[in-house]
Design goal:
CATH superfamily of the largest domain in chain A: Thiamin diphosphate (ThDP)-binding fold, Pyr/PP domains
Strand content of chain A: 5-15%
CATH topology of chain B: Cytochrome Bc1 Complex, Chain D, domain 2
Number of strands of chain B: 0
CATH architecture of chain B: Orthogonal Bundle
Number of domains of chain B: 1
Number of strands of chain A: 18
Strand order of the largest sheet of chain A: 2-1-3-4-6-5
CATH class of chain B: Mainly Alpha
Radius of gyration of chain A: 29 Å
Order of helices and strands of chain B: HHHHHH
Number of helices of chain B: 6
CATH topology of the largest domain in chain A: Rossmann fold
Number of domains of chain A: 4
Radius of gyration of chain B: 16 Å
Helix content of chain B: 40-55%
Largest interface: A-B, 47 and 42 residues
Largest sheet of chain B: none
Oligomer: heterodimer
Strand content of chain B: under 5%
CATH class of the largest domain in chain A: Alpha Beta
Structural class of chain B: mainly alpha
Distance between the termini of chain B: 57 Å
Distance between the termini of chain A: 54 Å
Shape of chain B: globular
Shape of chain A: globular
Structural class of chain A: alpha/beta
Helix content of chain A: 40-55%
CATH architecture of the largest domain in chain A: 3-Layer(aba) Sandwich
């Protein structure tokens, strides 16, 4: 165990000395609770008239118990399992620990705040107001930082709260280091609440959508499983892992004292699985010989390097890239970025390379209104997939989507790790005589990209001066204010018509981090704050356009933003509704020919309207709005951004069109 | 519960022809195309909200989740055809839930929506460099 260095100025009493001092005073402290009944008994017996009726009846001594208390407060110690666990987290490079407090993990909680936060390398406690927020913050953090942060919950009542956010992270292939406090020895649980908070196999409830879990039985077991959990989380496909950590093991002394603490296994460099050489060579052959190759990228770029590799592959082939909304896979203004033309490009393609496709069936097929399926590709077109998800499939939850038929080459491998080999093979196989043809192909895509951008500008102009304010106007007003900053758009832009992808310029991996994962609402507000936490140390300007419905799943996240002083600009896309559901309900009501005059019931968020700016201010944040006049939006954003640039969060509530 | 009405579906070829025609005409000469002089635009505006058009198409037809409807809406025949037999994902509006008179009124409202500023007239959009 690394010797901690206490660098907290003014901390005159080192923790170890404090504990030692507490141990000396332990007898006196311990005398309190057990002495009281004795005093009462003495009073009762000493009175002339017998027992004083104003005093509680003295406890009648019962038969002596053979059992010991779970928490014997008379015992103090100078080492504890919680401190050891903090050292394990630090050995993994974990910098943040998010939690809503709970009594099953006070042993770690206390160790983080009194040991982890005061000694180097520091571990920062992030206070949340809901377990779903803890997990979702960790989700967003990992997508920026490329590594997990830790979060902790109760086994029963906490893990159930956090489960939706875990499923989002799992479906989004994002690593999170999760722990739950587990009071394993039932005979030591002090009261009924501790029983309600316990489960025999708590991780079972989320096992279908975590990569791995374990319940360590000793500190040595804990450190080994922690390293394993981290490795599994960080091996593609990334995913959340979970340790159920015994409450008393956190709280109690390290068996044999600090000097007897088990060694912490060293975290190795985790090498992601790349595609098999022969398969990569064949994929390159098909791509090099294609007349109309198309590259489709979903959850590909895990790291900044992934974005660079995608550019290298596209340029080597002069092939168009269509990226999903899930990652920053390709620079938005690169001439080969043909994101809006996927459908038409597929109609003419002869080879499609689909990288980490989340839904290959929908990519390769079209389903009409009657449910008829037809191929989206011409007959004979080759389909290649590279997908790490195929290395670690699970049943039950249906995140794998429908099986896509007709794929002739399916590489079970991490796409980003396979790209260097594929690029090299493409360059090797590309005949020198094709250079002119490739240049012509690239120029044509450049022209198409210009035309698409001109069209996008005209689309954005539609309804520019309308109130409620158009989503395009919101996006462009934000961009106008931040385009010279080192900005990072942390929210998915599908709810705003993907205007940023069409009109903003972005070429860095942190400028966009994609979407929910499993489309579970309640992700945006906390996940973007977690991402902003990761951006904080780099001085980036974090932006989150969050839905009103999403924010109301967990508005306490605003307090966390203010309390932890995490700079972020929240812009509430306030369409005063669960809008997607309104559209779906309209369709059903009309099919039944009952009209849609009642579909607002259950979907509209009005009567009364929510004042999000006031809500933000009530939690200590700068709040602006509701902004209804588009002319007021720019100045409101400017004021809010002035606060964010000073290192504080701010919120602007914009009354907006539905989409 | 209202009674069901049998909806007769036109052939795909007819739909394609009408929609193609409407796209061509919608480029610029559709204003006034088959506009019903008896239609009530004021009532149409109210219906546009009450029947939920604005949810997908914006409060003034500028588009959003659904395509732009105004200004210069597609010809009323194509507009009505899309309502009765949607080709793209949108609720079907039979004459039970939206009689022809309502369709005409909504269409009349769409015709009243003036053309907004173009991208070239909006500095924030105009100044965005078209790259590459």
């Amino acid at each position: 165990m690394t010797a901690p260095v206490n660098d907290e100025k003014g901390a005159k009493l080192a923790r170890r000395h404090f504990l030692k001092g507490a141990a000396l005073g332990g007898v006196a402290v311990a005398a309190g609770p057990v002495a009281a009944p004795v005093v009462l008994a003495q009073n009762a017996e000493s009175g002339a008239g017998g027992r004083d009726p104003s005093q509680p009846r003295p406890a009648t001594p019962g038969p002596r118990s053979e059992e010991t208390s779970a928490r014997d407060h008379s015992v103090t110690y100078s080492s504890c399992g919680g401190d050891y666990m903090v050292d394990v987290l630090r050995s993994l490079g974990i910098e943040y620990f998010a939690a809503t407090p709970g009594n099953t993990f006070m042993g770690i909680h206390e160790a983080v705040i009194n040991y982890g936060m005061l000694t180097q390398p520091k571990l920062r406690f992030i206070t949340t107001m809901h377990e779903e927020a803890s997990v979702a913050m960790s989700h967003g953090y990992a997508k920026i930082e490329g590594k997990p942060m830790a979060c902790m919950m109760h086994t029963a009542v906490g893990l159930q709260h956090g489960s939706m956010a875990i499923y989002n992270a799992y479906a989004d292939r994002v690593p999170i280091f999760m722990m739950v406090g587990a009071w394993i020895d039932a005979t030591t649980r002090p009261n009924a609440v501790d029983w309600y908070h316990a489960a025999s196999d708590g991780p079972a409830m989320v096992r279908d959508f975590t990569k791995w879990d374990d319940t360590p039985g000793s500190l040595r077991h804990f450190s080994e499983s922690a390293v394993r959990a981290y490795r599994f989380a960080m091996t593609p496909p990334y995913g959340p892992t979970l340790l159920a950590v015994d409450t008393l093991m956190q709280e109690n002394e390290i068996p044999g004292g600090a000097k007897a603490a088990p060694p912490i296994p060293k975290l190795p460099h985790v090498s992601p699985p790349a595609g098999e050489e022969g398969a990569v060579r064949e994929a390159a052959r098909l791509l090099v010989n294609a007349e109309h190759p198309v590259i489709y990228a979903d959850r590909v770029a895990r790291t900044p390097e992934g974005l660079k590799l995608m550019v290298q592959l596209a340029e080597a082939l002069q092939a168009p890239v269509c990226s999903s909304d899930n990652r920053m896979n390709f620079p938005w203004r690169h001439p080969l970025n043909q994101g809006r033309r996927l459908r038409s490009l597929l109609e003419d393609t002869d080879v499609v390379l689909a990288l980490e496709p989340g839904d290959p069936f929908s990519l390769f097929n079209r389903v009409d209104a009657k449910g008829n399926v037809r191929s989206a590709l011409p007959a004979g077109a080759h389909k290649i997939t590279i997908s790490s998800v195929e290395l670690a499939p699970k049943g039950n939850y249906q995140d794998l989507q429908r099986l896509a038929p007709g794929i002739e080459l399916a590489m079970a491998a991490d796409a980003e790790a396979t790209l260097p080999m594929l690029i090299e093979e493409v360059r090797k196989q590309m005949p020198a005589g094709r250079r002119a043809a490739l240049e012509a192909r690239g120029k044509a895509f450049g022209l198409a990209a210009r035309e698409a951008m001109e069209a996008a500008k005209e689309t954005a102009a539609n309804g520019w001066d309308d109130s409620p304010i158009s989503t395009a106007r919101i996006c462009m007003e934000i961009y106008e204010q931040v385009k010279s900053d080192d900005w990072s758009l942390l929210s998915p832009s599908g709810f705003q018509g993907n205007v940023p992808q069409a009109l903003w310029t972005a070429d860095k991996h942190y400028q966009y981090i994609g979407s929910h994962g499993a489309a579970g609402i309640g992700y945006i507000s906390p996940a973007t704050l977690g991402a902003a936490l990761a951006n904080q140390k780099y001085g980036r300007l974090s932006i989150s356009i969050t839905g009103d419905g999403d924010l109301m799943f967990g508005p306490g996240i605003l307090w966390t933003a203010a309390h932890e002083r995490i700079p972020i600009l929240y812009v509430v896309h306030n369409n005063r509704a669960y809008h997607t559901e309104i559209m779906q309900l309209q369709a059903i009501a009309n099919r039944r020919q009952r009209g849609i005059d009642r579909v607002h019931i259950g979907c509209r968020i009005e009567d009364p309207h929510i004042d999000y700016a006031a809500m933000a201010r009530s939690m200590g944040m700068h709040g602006e709005g509701p902004i209804e006049n588009p002319r007021d939006l720019g100045p409101a954003l400017k004021r809010a951004l002035a606060t964010v640039r000073k290192g504080e969060p701010a919120l602007v509530d914009v009354v907006s069109q539905g989409r | 519960m209202r009674s069901n009405t049998t909806v007769t579906r036109p052939t795909a070829r007819v739909i394609r022809a009408v929609v193609t025609l409407s796209v061509v005409l919608g480029a610029g000469i559709s204003v006034g195309f088959a506009a019903n002089p008896t239609a009530n635009a004021t009532r149409g505006k109210q219906l546009y909200y009450e029947t939920g058009c604005y949810q997908c198409h914006g409060t003034r037809g500028a588009g959003g989740a659904g395509p732009r409807l105004a200004p210069q809406p597609i010809p009323i025949e194509a507009f009505k055809l899309q309502l009765r037999h949607p080709r793209i994902r949108m609720p079907v509006y039979t004459d039970v839930v939206m009689p022809d008179a309502d369709v005409a009124d909504i269409y009349a409202y769409l015709l009243t929506i003036p053309k907004g500023r173009s991208a070239a007239e909006i500095p924030m959009l105009k100044e965005i460099a078209v790259t590459p």
